[in-house]
Fold this sequence. Notes:
This is Putative oxidoreductase. This protein has 330 residues and is α/β, with parallel strands linked by helices. The protein contains eleven helices and 13 strands. The protein has two domains: 9-117 and 262-321, Medium-chain alcohol dehydrogenases, catalytic domain (Quinone Oxidoreductase, Chain A, domain 1); 121-258, NAD(P)-binding Rossmann-like Domain (Rossmann fold), CATH 3.40.50. The chain has helices at 38-44, 111-115, 118-131, 148-159, 171-180, 193-200, 217-224, 246-251, 266-279, 281-285, 302-311, and strands at residues 26-36, 61-69, 81-85, 94-98, 102-104, 139-143, 163-168, 184-187, 206-211, 225-233, 255-258, 293-298, 317-321. α4 (148-159) links the parallel β6 and β7.
Amino acid sequence: MGFDAPGGADVLRPVHMAVPQVGPEDVLIKVAFAGVNRPDVAQRQGLYPPPPGASPIPGLEVSGTVVAVGREVPPELLNQEVCALVTGGGYAEYCLAKAGHCLPVCESLPLDQAAALPETLFTVWHNVFERGYATQGETMLVHGGTSGIGTMTSMLGKLFGINVIVTCGSDEKCAAARRIGAAHAVNYRTHDFVEEVKALTDGRGVNLVLDMVGGDYVARNLKCLAEDGRHVTIAVQGGVKAEINLAQVMTRRYTLTGSTLRPRSDAFKTLLADDIQRNVWDLVADGELRPVMDRRFPLREAAAAHARMEAGDHIGKIVLEVDDGESGPS
């Protein structure tokens, strides 16, 4: 499923392409499900082009069965069910992945849920725990509490002893976020989240902000931080430019950082996958960590999936189901 030119959700259409050929470190996955993420929407809009060498087809995470392996890949991966972080190409019947970017799918993990894990899990683990240095007993703020990133942050926070405050756009979403694992949820349409954070932390502020908004939210986020607080930016949905008070940064010893995952090196992503397998994957195998699922759409209805994401009504992850014979090779 691809598009000829950037535009609205309706530009997505079935396209016919050759099955990708595996390289030395690749596996070819017969895709069962593909996750839908904000970067897919941005790519379709022409705002987030794929990095050099990546497939032009959208889709950054998949689950399915390995049907071919490269010469440097352990042969035992053949015929195994996996989920994988990919640089593109997920909205298709077959998708290439680096073997080091795959995680095993245990029997208790449904394939639709498996496809909903890699993008958010890799992103949150790296930015909250590796870049943000979150530790047990700390408090953090994340916007978009019922998004894929927001729900994953709340669940990991609860599992690792971090109090997560989220913002949401309705009381219903706030209630859902609390059920999912957030310690507190603030309706940003009816309350000033800066004042609410101060009240919830007895004026101390949070230790970490995971920011997906950017723009004028950055200055407000900094007002939420405790001394020595960390601010990690992972998206700029509200704008790429921010005006901040550098004196505030210096006197309160703030750390501002950020990252994007897609263009990082294959070696980096392999190390990140290894770290997740050591620290988190047992929680998935035991059923303690599962993605929050919103809706699944057949691949042919990818436009409807994008429209749902853009409307902002979803809670958790949206996935596409790839059904043989339904859309043709894409």
